[in-house]
Structure formats: C-alpha cells, structure tokens
Write a structure and sequence with these properties.
Layout lengths: L2 H24 L5 H15 L12 H19 L3 H16 L6 H37 L1
Helix pairs in contact: 1-2, 1-3, 1-4, 2-3
Length: 140
C-alpha cells in the first residue's frame, strides 16, 4: 500500500472516530468524565492552536500525529461499550451518506475569529498606540 493511500485511509478513520466521539458526547448515558475528555479531544482536534506550533519543523507535526490519536483512544476507552457501538453505527451511517457543506457553520467560525480579532485589537490598542507614539517621538 502506498504511503499516500495509507495516509488517506488513516485520515478517514480519524474523521470517523471524531464523529463517533461526537455522537457519544450527545448520548445522555455517557458519563460526565467521558464527556469532559471528549470535549477536550474534539476541541483540540478542531482548534487552530496546537500545543506545539506547526511551524516548528517535525515537532509541530508530531504533536498532531501522536497527541490527537492518543486523546481519541483514551476517550474511546472510557466510553461504555454499548454507547460506543451505537455511536460508531451512527458515525458509519453518516459517512455513507453524502452531506452538503455547511456554509452556515463556516460563517459562524469566521464570525468567531473576527470577534476574537476585534477584541484582541481593542485589548492591545492602548499598548500599541503608546509604543507607536514613543517610536515616532524618538525619530522626530
């Protein structure tokens, strides 16, 4: 099996397992400890912020290749078996169906980023204004 095909297969499995975790999280029978770990796992999986930034050669990618699968396995290990089986069936059913792209979801993510950038700007503006004025005054 070629490396590219193997990576595509693993990516598909990872996506399917993330939906398994999502469905297990929604199940009211799932213990709260499992729900907390699932929330951390899915949050880290979809977060643009990594423990080790991706621009650091090799280590940035290793964090995604090692930490994410470990979190997924740990989450799956504490989900009760009957809930896990039902969640996997739902995830498999979802994978077999064609789902349209959710543009509303994408717009919500963009809106969250814009609000965060706006808040960060207003948080840092006084410092940047002071710093910029001191730079200009030094060169005047």
């Amino acid at each position: 099996m070629s490396l590219l095909k193997n990576l595509k297969t693993r990516a598909k499995q990872l996506k399917n397992e993330s939906f398994t975790l999502y469905y297990a999280y929604l199940d009211p029978r799932t213990p709260w400890q499992a729900k907390c770990l699932i929330a951390v796992t899915i949050g880290y999986l979809f977060s643009p912020i990594d423990l080790i930034p991706d621009f650091i050669p090799i280590l940035g990618i290793l964090d995604d290749l090692i930490l994410v699968p470990l979190l997924i396995r740990w989450s799956i290990s504490i989900i009760p078996p009957e809930i896990l089986i039902e969640s996997r069936l739902k995830a498999d059913l979802r994978a077999s169906q064609q789902t349209p792209t959710s543009w509303w979801f994408a717009m919500m993510i963009i809106l969250i980023w814009l609000i965060a950038a706006y808040g960060l700007y207003h948080l840092l503006y006084p410092y940047l204004k002071f710093h910029w004025n001191s730079v200009i005054n030094k060169h005047s």
